[in-house]
Design a protein that fits this description.
Elements: H1 4-18, H2 23-30, H3 34-41, H4 49-58, H5 73-114
Helix pairs in contact: 2-3
Length: 116
């Protein structure tokens, strides 16, 4: 017989790991503790519907994905793609910020030399 706690615990852990998150990171995003996330992943606790919703929102998935008996490779790929785009976006933002700051310093020096 299918054990809903086992399915939920396994899927929660898989989705968290696909994102490359620690239990602490997921806890931070859901306003709970890493200890609680660990208890969910080891089947010692089962979340309220409100917490299921928070977990799903944090991981950008539908709540039902936490209860699928088989996570399809396409779902894992989709979530991996989201993570990749998020990481690329962060890297681009850091690069642009650094580039702009450098250019501003160069202009400040240039303006100082020109007396302007």
């Amino acid at each position: 017989m299918l054990n809903i706690r086992e399915v939920f615990a396994s899927n929660l852990k898989k989705h968290r790991q696909v994102r490359g998150w620690s239990q602490a990171k997921l806890a931070e995003k859901t306003g709970t503790s890493a200890h609680y996330i660990g208890m969910l992943e080891t089947k010692f606790k089962f979340p309220s519907s409100e917490m299921i919703h928070k977990l799903a929102i944090a991981m950008c998935i539908e709540p039902t994905e936490l209860f699928l008996t088989e996570i399809l490779p396409s779902t894992i790929l989709k979530n991996s793609q989201k993570v990749a785009f998020e990481n690329v976006g962060e890297a681009v933002n850091q690069f642009v910020s650094s580039f702009v700051a450098k250019k501003i310093k160069e202009l400040d020096v240039e303006c100082g030399k020109d007396g302007g």
